[in-house]
């Protein structure tokens, strides 16, 4: 039987995010955030679901951490809800919110589970949105103030920090396509938001360095290997442009301190280029300790004369898909990892999200036999191992997600968890994929 062993100190973890699991949306002094507001508007979310209760992790975190401990999970990526700490986004601190995260993080550490904290996973305090949100450069300063408090409170016990989760999703889905909070549909605003988020990232990295903290800090980008539908030069160009739009705009800014020239030219021609300075770019590219990558699927592109602003459209192929409709394409992870390794100086990489939604059911024995998810995870970890064997500095993998949770615009209709959540009873059922992953962690290897 073929065995694929990972490096000795490889980080095996699971991931979640505050708004998707905590619930307690207006409890203990938490301020309103943009997802509380966005989900309260009928029509925005599948069946008007919201995160008001979610997995009730705010109250059940000890039970959830016990499950992690039983599974031998030693690393947990979580996010902090900014509005629980600063209800208005700045100024007055909500001590009960701070105390919750102290309890949560101390419980993890007491169980030997290392936290990796995402400072921003999409849940901007609504008060800041009311002043323009990320399109307003002032919000950058408030993010730095929030980060500084988090570093002061938890900097000595949290070894891994992620400034932002997926600036592309925040900017494009939230400010160009309008399908995420705050529901704006304007590309110029979206690209200015992306820039301001990247600038806030760089400022927080500089702050972290100035505080002489001993952990590692990075940013998480959602990346996807891009493929032309055909070898027609128009399709090839469409894939290149989409690669610039999704991947290179962010990778080049963070790791090279420049925006890619082809995209600057395109955005300038479309009059959607953000305002920025050379100093901004220098700050944005402050050296990071790792690049976080969220990978789920590849992107196949075709030329489309009518597609604004890229003249490129995603193609939906008739290939095996997850419940999200995303093609299952494990080799795309290998392509991405090797491309980044070769094009961006061998930066250390953490896969901060990879996983799959499937239509899980609880069988007559009360079990969730999610073999499809095990197959997805196996195939992607196999590609990760291939990349490592070819020299890629891949240091860890956080599975998305520990719990079934609120899947943004899809509400609770999509289950990504390795632990099933019955939202009516809040009962947890450990899925077969969790036991499988527990073995991978224990053996630090994949077995065919
Ligand atoms: C194209 O997928 C994105 O990279 C992506 C997928 N996902 C994400 N980003 C977010 O970081 C999570 O909050 C989602 O729950 C998760 C599953 O949808």
Automatic annotation (TrEMBL):
Signal peptide boundaries: none
BP-aspect Gene Ontology terms: cellulose catabolic process
Keywords (A to Z) from UniProt: Carbohydrate metabolism, Cellulose degradation, Glycosidase, Hydrolase, Polysaccharide degradation
Binding-site list for substrate: 20, 121, 165, 296, 400, 407-408
EC number, as in UniProt: 3.2.1.21
Annotated active site: 166, 353
GO terms, molecular function: beta-glucosidase activity
CC per GO annotation: cytosol
Keyword Hydrolase assigned: yes
Domain of life assignment: Bacteria
Xref: Pfam families: Glyco_hydro_1
Keyword 4Fe-4S: no
InterPro entries attached to this UniProt entry: GH (IPR017853), GH_1_N_CS (IPR033132), Glyco_hydro_1 (IPR001360), Glyco_hydro_1_AS (IPR018120), Glyco_hydro_1_beta-glucosidase (IPR017736)
Catalytic reactions of this protein: Hydrolysis of terminal, non-reducing beta-D-glucosyl residues with release of beta-D-glucose
PANTHER family: GLYCOSYL HYDROLASE, LP05116P
Family: Belongs to the glycosyl hydrolase 1 family.
This protein's name: Beta-glucosidase
Protein's organism: Thermobrachium celere DSM 8682
């Amino acid at each position: 039987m073929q065995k694929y062993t990972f490096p000795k100190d490889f980080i095996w973890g699971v991931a979640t995010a505050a708004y998707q699991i905590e619930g307690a949306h207006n409890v203990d002094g938490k301020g309103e955030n943009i997802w509380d507001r966005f989900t309260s508007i009928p029509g925005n979310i599948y069946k008007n679901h919201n995160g008001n209760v979610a997995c009730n992790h705010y109250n059940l975190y000890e039970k959830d951490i016990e499950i992690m401990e039983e599974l031998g999970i030693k690393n947990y990526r979580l996010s902090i809800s900014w509005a629980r700490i600063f209800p208005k986004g700045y100024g007055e601190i909500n001590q009960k919110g701070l105390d919750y995260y102290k309890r949560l993080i101390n419980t993890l550490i007491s169980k030997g589970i290392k936290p990796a904290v995402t400072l921003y996973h999409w849940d901007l305090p609504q008060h800041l949105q009311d002043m323009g949100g990320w399109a307003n450069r002032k919000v950058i300063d408030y993010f730095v103030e929030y980060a500084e408090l988090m570093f002061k409170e938890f900097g000595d016990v949290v070894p891994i920090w992620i400034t932002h989760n997926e600036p592309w999703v925040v900017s494009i889905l939230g400010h160009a396509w309008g399908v995420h909070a705050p529901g704006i549909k304007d590309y110029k605003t979206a690209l200015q938001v992306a820039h301001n988020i990247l600038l806030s990232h760089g400022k927080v990295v500089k702050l972290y360095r100035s505080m002489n903290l001993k952990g590692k800090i990075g940013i998480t980008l959602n990346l996807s290997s891009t493929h032309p539908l055909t070898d027609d030069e128009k399709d090839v160009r469409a894939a290149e442009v989409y690669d610039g739009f999704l991947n290179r705009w962010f990778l080049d800014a963070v790791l090279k301190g420049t925006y890619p020239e082809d995209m600057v030219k395109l955005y300038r021609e479309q009059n959607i280029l953000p305002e920025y300075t050379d100093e901004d770019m220098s700050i944005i590219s402050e050296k990071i300790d790792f690049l976080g990558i969220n990978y789920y699927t590849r992107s196949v592109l075709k030329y489309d004369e009518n597609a604004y602003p890229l003249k490129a459209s995603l193609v939906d192929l008739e290939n095996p898909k997850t419940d999200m409709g995303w093609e299952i394409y494990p080799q795309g992870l290998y392509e991405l990892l090797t491309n980044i390794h070769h094009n961006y100086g061998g930066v250390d990489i953490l896969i901060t999200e990879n996983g799959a939604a499937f239509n899980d059911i609880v069988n007559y024995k009360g079990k969730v036999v999610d073999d499809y998810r095990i197959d997805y995870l196996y195939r992607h970890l196999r590609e990760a191992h291939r990349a490592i064997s070819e020299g890629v500095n891949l240091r860890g993998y956080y599975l998305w997600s520990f719990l079934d949770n609120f899947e943004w615009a899809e509400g609770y209709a999509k289950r990504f968890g390795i632990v099933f959540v019955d939202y009516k009873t809040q009962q947890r059922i450990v899925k077969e994929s969790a036991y499988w992953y527990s073995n991978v962690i224990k053996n630090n290897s994949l077995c065919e």
